[in-house]
Amino acid sequence: MADLRSNFIGIKSPNPFWLASAPPTDKEYNVVRAFKAGWGGVVWKTLGEDPPVVNVSSRYGAMHLGPDRMIGFNNIELISDRPLDINLQEIKRVKRDWKDRAMIVSLMVPCEEDSWKNILARVEDTEADGIELNFGCPHGMSERGMGAAVGQVPEYVEMVARWCKQYTRMPVIVKLTPNVTDVRKPAQAAKKGGADAVSLINTINSICSVDLDAMAPTPVVDGKGTHGGYCGSAVKPIALNMVAEIARDPATHGMPISAIGGIGTWRDAAEFMSMSAGNVQVCTAAMHYGFRIVEEMVSGLSNWMDEKGYRTIEDFRGLAVPNVTDWQQLNINFKTIAHIDQETCIQCGLCYVACEDTSHQSISAKRVDGKRKYEVIDEECVGCNLCYHACPVPNVITMVPQNTGKPYLNWTQDPRNPMRKKAAE
Amino acid sequence: MSEYAAPDIRAGRLTAAEIAANFNDVKPPLDRKRALVESSRCFYCYDAPCIDACPTSIDIPSFIRSIAVNDPIGAAETILEANIMGGMCSRVCPVEILCEDACVRNHSEDKPVQIGALQRYATDALVNAGKQPFTRAPSSGKKVAVIGGGPAGLSAAHRLSRLGHDVTVYEAREKLGGLNEYGIAAYKTVHDFAQTEVSFILALGGIAVKTGMALGRDVTLEGLRKDYDAVFLAMGLGGVNALGAAGEEMAGIEDAVGYIARLRQAKDRQSLPVGRKVVVIGGGNTAIDIAIQSKRLGAEDVTLVYRRGPDNMSATHHEQEFAQVNGVKIKHWARPLKLHGANGAVREVEFEYTQLDDKGRLMGTGETFSILCDTVFKAIGQTLVADPLNGKAKDVLDMAGGKIAVNDDFATSIKGVFAGGDCVTSGIDLTVQSVADGRDAAISIDAYLRGEA
Fold first, then answer.
1. Which of A299, B168, B210, B234 holds its CA 20 to 30 A away from the CA of B108?
2. Does A208 participate in catalysis according to the annotation?
3. B397: closest CA among B414, B421, B383?
4. Quick check: bond before A415 cis, omega within 30?
5. Among A137, A164, A283, A355, which one carries the catalytic annotation?
6. Is residue A156 part of a domain?
7. Which of these three, A295, A323, A351, is where a domain ends?
8. Which CATH class name applies to B9-18+240-381?
9. Residues B289-324: pLDDT tens digits?
10. Residue A66 to residue B36, Cβ atoms within 8 A
11. pLDDT band at B2 (very low <50, low <70, confident <90, very high)
């Protein structure tokens, strides 16, 4: 039986599944329910200075795809709108009652040393396990010079991280915004400032949809809308890339990462961990289905690890990182081509029309005894995978690597590359 | 003979509420949510097999995608462009042997997309919105007479009018619609949908209607040929086959087609007399429909007897199962020998078991059995009433297999006279085929009128 216990920068939890700082972790009631459901830890919804912020009515937008609800989700809610004292009392009480769970407190105060110094002392008093600096919130707070407004300036990230390390013994996690051109820069700054870890991604600037009757972006607040933070399954590929970028950047390589972004299943978690994440944080999936989803995450990860022979998370953590490379390092001599299994093909023709209209005209459409027959023209196929992805039935189309007899050759070595480096003479 | 009690045939076997429930929509429409879920199951196949399986070749993936993107009106326009009776076809088509049988989902999960239900969702949306998606081309100055206001005739009339010709439909009955109005099982087309659809078709304009006008009685083919530039014959099959068994003239022996027509037109179905024990003879949709409707009117025992096996029945397996679910007993491999009765009323049918001989021909085994009954419904096929066609015309209308002979363009042996629907032999014997015939015949007539054919 796999051991799912997690030790992330010294913070222990029975499993690597934390709830991210967000509405689900806004108060004692929710967090206790989450712990009862089995979550390994929570990052308490971001605390700020009193007086608390005020939220608007109508806060969430969503991207639905056919009958699939909320494949993407966005929100315009701000940080905790409850008094600081009450939050701190609740945090202290919950941590006292749930000692084995990770309790991280998310913080966002103005970019002034005293503001951070003051709040850190009060958080320490709760005996929370660590803090997460919210440098990511892309809406509302950023207009006030906080959240993403800090996260987008590496110098500020470094400065605040340094203050925090200076004024508290608690481990410091810096939560990064994806609303930057190069996520490695703020990650490097966090490291320079002494942060113990980064967490990413926060939500992405977004407008989920336009209400064509109101002619306003959703969610519509009295006839108007604003951009919100995008999250949910749809953002996972963006988050995976950003995690990978930081993992393979020599400047930040080995820096602990708490992964966030579209994680809702054990598989999502395993993928992020293979990209070096020490644990994962979940929000949207819980907001969609409730806290109970952690049961299937724990069970699924455990069974997959058993199947693969991984005893602990450390056994597979980061294994995919060395296989993330630059395009120019890919083997240009590798060749794979599609194969369509005629036995299981359902003759929907989607592979054919995709290839014929938009790719390489590598699939033939025939009628044999009145029956449709789609076959790959091996000589024309470039192995692009489009048909494989378009096919609605699993395992009908497979990509079959070909033995070309040619050695590894990357673009920097390829004679067809006019810019290639000449071998040293 | 005196051992027979008097037949028990009476009205009011069920309460009004029971009748209402029994003749309610047999397959209620999808609501928006269900339609969106179901439409998302369509793979949007390229060169989709379902299109091939539809006699009217509706672009099914396209209309389903329109539903999925919340454009049911666009979906309906796609459907109606190919099949102006897409609304009725969505209700009565045996989709299990047509589009849904061809759905590629059958290959991977044995559960096709509910194409028929989605088609109804879309066409209902357009009809309910009161939208008229079609316009007429500039007038050609040509006039066409259409004989018969059923699916083939109305489909042809609509297309001809769209193409700019002035059409007059001659219908022998009181109402247009043909079998949609007088034949289809009541629970398949509730809320007077046949007339709703007729109104929608006529709303295009350019179609004059003369009801109560029968060919051979009120008009002649020769006369119509003089008054019109072309004639389209779509009078369907007006006659019914006889059993050919002794005693067929007794009371209590009815044509299923005639009874169904009365049932469809009845204002109060509770008032329809129905036998306590009913025997239905036949194996097609009419046999199934009369059997189920008898049951739903309150008949206690309904037995459908067919001379061959389940695979030979022209009613689909789905329809056969539906009859059985409704409590109809189906007996295969038997044919009626003799009808027995008392005081001129049928009381019992004597059947002979059948089998195939070495050469695959049907033969009696000599063994017999009998079923007591109050009513016998004959549902063994309809025939073309050819008399009015021949009349005293100089030109002879060629026949083939008891129906009007036509070429691939639906042209008969007489110049300018075309025919389609049940009165010709084309494809399968279904409403949707008649609609296809009417549409395609109209296109041929248009070419003829414009001197292109």
1. A299
2. no
3. B414
4. no
5. A137
6. yes
7. A323
8. alpha beta
9. 999 999 999 999 999 999 999 999 999 999 999 999
10. yes
11. low
- Cβ-defined contact of A346 to B105 (cutoff 8 Å): yes
Nearest CB to A348; choose among B36, B37, B45:
B45
The minimal CB distance from A348 to the residues B39, B40, B104 is found for B104
- B62 reaches A (C-beta below 8 A): no
Element (H, E) at A150: helix A148-151
User: What homologous superfamily is domain B143-238+384-449 in, according to CATH?
Assistant: FAD/NAD(P)-binding domain (3.50.50.60)
Q: What are phi and psi of A266, to 5 degrees?
A: -60, -35
Q: What letter does residue A259 receive in the DSSP assignment? A: E
Whether the CB-CB separation of B245 and B342 falls below 8 Å is answered with: no
**Could you list the pLDDT tens digit for every one of the 425 residues in chain A?**
899 999 999 999 999 999 999 999 999 999 999 999 999 999 999 999 999 999 999 999 999 988 889 999 999 999 999 999 999 999 999 999 999 999 999 999 999 999 999 999 999 999 999 999 999 888 888 888 888 888 999 999 999 999 999 999 999 999 999 999 999 999 999 999 999 999 999 999 999 999 999 999 999 999 999 999 999 999 999 999 999 999 999 999 999 999 999 999 999 999 999 999 999 999 999 999 999 999 999 999 999 999 999 999 999 999 999 999 999 999 999 999 999 999 999 999 999 999 999 999 999 999 999 899 999 999 999 999 999 999 999 999 999 999 999 999 999 999 999 988 765 54
Which of B31, B40, B41, B47 is the best mutation test for A, with the most CBs of A within 10 A? B47
Q: Considering only the beta carbons, identify the residue of A344, A349, A392 that sits closest to B46.
A: A349
Report how far residue B301's alpha carbon sits from residue B278's, in angstroms, rounded to the nearest whole number. 6
Cβ pair B58, B76 in contact under 8 A:
no
* Rounded Cα gap, residues A230 and A63, in angstroms: 10
| Strand bridging mode A277-282 / A257-260 | parallel
pLDDT of residue A425: 45
b (16+ CB within 10 A) / e for B152-165: bbbbbbbbbbbbbb
Same domain assignment for residues A370 and A413: yes
pLDDT band at B394 (very low <50, low <70, confident <90, very high): low
Tell me the shortest Cα–Cα distance from A337 to chain B, in angstroms: 22
Among chain A residues, CA nearest to B110: A346
Instruction: Examine the predicted complex and report whether its ipTM is higher than 0.90.
Output: no
**By the CB < 8 Å criterion, does A238 face chain B?**
no
Identify the pLDDT of residue A121: 95
User: Is residue B36 less than 8 Å (CB to CB) from chain A?
Assistant: yes
Cα B274 to Cα B300: distance, rounded to the nearest angstrom: 10
- CATH code of the domain containing A175: 3.20.20.70
**Does A372 sit within 8 Å of B49, measured CB to CB?**
yes
Residue in A with minimal Cα distance to B67: A66
CATH class of B41-129: mainly alpha
- Cβ contact B182:B265 at 8 Å: yes
Task: State whether A67 and B45 contact (CB < 8 Å).
Answer: no
The amino acid present at B318, given as its one-letter code, is: H
Measured distance CA(A251)–CA(A256) in Å, rounded: 13
Asked which of A291, A323, A355 is the last residue of a domain, the reply is: A323
Compute the count of residue pairs across chains A and B with CB atoms less than 8 Å apart.
39
| Domain definitions of chain B by residue range | 9-18+240-381, 41-129, 143-238+384-449
Any idea what the CATH number is for the domain that residue A331 is in?
A: 3.30.70.20
The answer to whether residue B1 scores a pLDDT higher than 50 is no
Q: Which residue from A67, A346, A353 is facing B104, i.e. has the nearest CB?
A: A346
Q: What is the domain extent for residue A348?
A: 327-424
Q: What is the pLDDT of residues B403-447, one digit of tens each?
A: 999 999 999 999 999 999 999 987 788 999 999 999 999 999 999
Residues A197 and A296 in one domain: yes
Residue A42 makes CB contacts below 8 A (sequence gap 6+) with: A18, A19, A25, A31, A34, A35, A101, A102, A103, A104
